[in-house]
Amino acid sequence: MNNNEEAEMGHAHSDKLRRPVGDIVQPATRQFVEPNDKQSTCTIKLAASPPGDAVRPSSCPGIYCGRHYLADGNWSDCGACPRGYRTNSYSICVKCEDSPEFYDWLYLGFMVLLALVLHWFCIDTAALRRSFCKEVFALHLSALVETTMAAVLTLLMSEPWGKLEVRSCRTQKLSDWYTLLHNPNPDYADTLHCTQEAVYPLYTMVFIFYALSIVLMLIIRPWLAGHFLPVYGKMSIYAALYFFPTLALIQAVLGGLIYYSFPYMSMKSLVISTLTDVRNMVILIGHWLLHAYGIIALTQLREPALHAALIALIPLPAAFYVLTARFTDPNKVHTD
């Protein structure tokens, strides 16, 4: 190799050293040049990461405190996640994208049935009639329509808006219902308030349903009550104005406990006096439906054949009562 060739190689080497860095590494891409005669370029796209000082922020104290992205691209301080978000294992607030499980739908259905049964109970009690007449039936039907409309409107008002769907956060444990009790106290100084709806939207949906039920009842029921039961019909409205705030208070304090125990509460005993009275027949069918709902809530129909057979056995307690009631009539018990 002569001196001229060595000089040319030296100039080429110096040109490569003087090449601008931007020619090799571009923003969001990296180019790798293979050392052969025919240059081939391999470009790898870097994963998009949120702007800020760090890709993963430091963890927050407590199990419900988290950080979210700010408009300037940095992380927020530790605190409560916005509504519709909850923290992950890295203390980052992530959007809830889950759909309610079958058990969650059963819970929401139970809360609707609870309000409907209380409506019917108050109507039946206020009517002061042993027979099931058309006037009482009209108010029962009104309560059914009001409750159904309130439930549908509640679904339409939940995310995604205007659809009969619900976007939710998955319930993981009982403490998810009581985040107020889990605000951390770092260094035993100031309390870090991270109260949020970790079970979004199962907690607030019930309150929305109660509010809509009251509004619809005040719109529909007074006219029907004044037309069919002018004297006693309005008493069912007053009763509902009392039990709805009570239900809201129970939901606020015991919502999580109800969520985990409602399958056992909805299995009510079948107490029947006779099958010839239309009123008692309606009550009996209502109890059967509640009993069936309780079985479905407990089993979630994981074994359809077996659990369908259990549902088919629901009328047996009523049949047993009818067949044995004459042996337990107090009027036929003789004492010495």
TrEMBL record:
Comp. bias intervals (Basic and acidic residues): 8-20
One Pfam short name: JAMP
Spans through the membrane: 105-123, 135-157, 202-224, 236-260, 280-298, 305-323
Keyword annotations: Membrane, Transmembrane, Transmembrane helix
GO cellular component terms given for this protein: membrane
Molecular function (Gene Ontology), one example: ubiquitin protein ligase binding
Species: Timema cristinae
InterPro entries, per database record: JAMP
Region described as Disordered: 1-20
GO BP, one annotated term: ERAD pathway
Protein's recorded name: JNK1/MAPK8-associated membrane protein
Keyword presence, rRNA-binding: no
